[in-house]
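Same chain as my last thread, 129 residues:
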Amino acid sequence: MTPPRRVAVLTGTRAEFGLLTPVMHAIDRHPDLELLVVAAGMHLIGDPPTINEVRARFPVTALIHMQAQDDSGRIADALAFSRGVEGVAHFCEEHAPDWFVVLGDRIEAFAGAAAASIGGVAVAHIHGG
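reply #2:
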């Protein structure tokens, strides 16, 4: 029997999560797919952090800390991007997804797509803003 294909879905914001939820449910229900949820970026900051909303619906496979609570500006974004690339690279090495799904055009999606693609993982980009 063929093992299920591993599909990682990166969610970085509440807005993305709302759009990704039906996709994540479809992957989770498919017998030939295994859902790996990667929560990053804005989900991990704020009061309360929106990671709690993600965890209420799906098991979270990995957390990738990118932004700091009070950092903003281009340098802060570049540093957050680099942390995202590093985190996704380690995630891909550890979990070996067959596909890496991203949505939108924020730095979380860009970092995820870049790291997954460079790591040889097929990337599915749903849409940009």
